[in-house]
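This part of the workshop introduces the protein records we will be handling. An example says more than a description, so a record of this kind follows.
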Amino acid sequence: SKRGVSAAASRTPHPAPALWPAMDFAALEAREGVRLSWNAWPSSRIEATRVVLPFGAVCTPVAPMPQIAVLPYAPVVCAECSAVLNPFCSVDYRQKRWQCCLCNAGNPLPRNYHEIHENNLPAELFPAYTSVEYQMENKTPRPPCFLLVLDTTMAAEELQDAKDSLGQLVALLPEECLVGLVTFGATVTVHEVCAGAMPKAFVLRGTDDISQDSLKKLLGLELSAHEHAHYNKQQGSAVAEAANPLRRFILPVAECEFTLQTILDEVQPDPFPREAGMRPFRATGVAIAVAAGLVAESHSAQGARVMVFTSGPCTMGPGTIVGRDLGENIRTHQDFNKGTATHYKAASKFYNQVGIRLATHAHTLDVFACSLDQVGLAEMKTAVDQTGGVMVLAEQFRAETFRNSLRRLFRRDASGALDMYFNATFSVFVVPQVMVCGGIGPMSALAVKSKSISENEVGMGQTTSWRVCSLSSTTSISVYYEIVNQHSNPIPAGTPFYLQFCVRYKRSNGEIRLRVITVARRWAESSGAPDIVAGFDQEATALLMARVATFRVEHEETFDLLRWLDRTLIRVGTKFGEYQRDAPETFRMPGPFAIYPQFMFNLRRSQFLQTANNTPDETAFYRLMMGRETVVNSLVMIQPTLTSYSFSGPPRPVLLDVASIQPDVILLLDTFFMIVVHAGNTVAAWRKANYQDLPEHEAFRNLLALPVSDAAAAMGVRCPTPRLVECDQGGSQARFLLAKLNPSATHNTAADGGDMG
């Protein structure tokens, strides 16, 4: 119904927040979980094109919000656009109707709301509750499932480290969580983990892909014709119960932990013979396909993760990354450029299909690669990304960074549940003057049609809803918008508009929640209005641009993409910069834009767009992380932070320049993926002389400890855990710092202060 709400006895919607000259975007994000590139929008399509940079939002759907209200009932939804009732909606208490603030449609209030009035409001209409959570009914609660897929084609010592890591993982799981085990080498083995005199293990060939139907027959998961004929639908069947994979292959930790540990203890390195000069037989692709089929059969539409622990590339069957002959080198970026990566297209197509199968059932693929060589993450990236999975790179299974990453992945929240959320649906709703171009994040698009879908596609478009198979409290999603209001239909400046974000997700304890975030901003008269400049969030915009660039670089030439970034920056400077014609030294950007060019400079030379000195696997890992982390974490990836520690005062940020290297200073470089603690020559000499052990040099001892403790604090909240490098000026590992610094001084131009060392 389009019937409006009468003015009499109606509730005025909560006004949009005012724009101030210096907006506190971090405070807005803490309250709303959303950051917008522009916090005031021009009111017409023509004016919108003149601001050059995208209109978008970075939403952290399940960001920790201790103050958020949890409502124990279902939401009230608009019949026209499916948006949820919120404080910005008008309510007619007399007629028991409400008007949607997004589509302006009138809706009747449900019967249980007929007692509301100005002094008796439901929580979702409280002005302060623009973000709320609804506790939804779950008729079939089931704990999440974790299917462990272990590569056995490694040395006995390395395999023991891998088994120890799996034992650590199982110990981190709540007792009600379901767990199963698949091992693979030249063949794929599916283990029964049920208690019994002799649990079975089903060995499958690693040369051919296995369909869902074939897997059911091979594992005995379907009834025979005779059993079907005698099946009792009312009472069930003992045969059907025995065939249930949840009774054989996947069981709660409390029931199968001893059996699982026994099986792991008995797992030996793959016995298949390996000739000299040849890589081992490794059927990674088939193992992932079998695991995907098993969880699809036992846990469809429930939270599940297929967790692959591998030590090398797939060398046989579908998904092959490289041939077995060691004379054949694994593909490089140069091979991609020349088109000589023999296996890449076929492997990528296979893993993409596996990813689609997993995403269809709301399941996740995680890859833990512990190897000195590449393992094929570049080919697997699409499957991992569209299912919301994680990648962890390490050199060994015993590496501390790897084990810390596992512990961090399975951390608990304040209630004791895993900080891990499953089977989420992320939806966005907009006003009629705005359309949705698309989204970028660890998700897959759902076929949801809407009048709000733009023809200009950015990222995953042609929808307003996406499936996020798995997410955590730091997972963020970028949404891109287009303003479509015509110039001939002016909107008064200061008029509010609204955006809504809804995420329906499942907690590890089986509880289903719906978080609804509604944000209000104001229309501005033109692209040059003061509100436009004052409401510009350069940090969120840098992330939105970085994600578009990272998404497009997979399909376009890097050179063309760099030109696009450059031209965009020039247009931004032309539009918003302050300068005198033909006087370059007078150019400056206004305050809200001051650091944006610096972000773009660092993005151009970052590992997301430049592939030199990185393998395809490392590049895939970096790009995967850029597509999911929060604004603050992503900015550290784009532009690393450099902090100086000295006796002259507290720690302070310094320029990413070699001039910041001083003999009596300790530098802490944080690139998100790696943290470097760099001691100057004088500090290193004092440390080697053990001055820190002397009682009179307590200040020096504290100076040495402070950057290390700050590094440990940063490492403790990230997953995957960054690598820590401690080095001295002039040492071999100082290259990790020098690689990120601007070489304003070289061996030819080194000044007295800055020292290349």
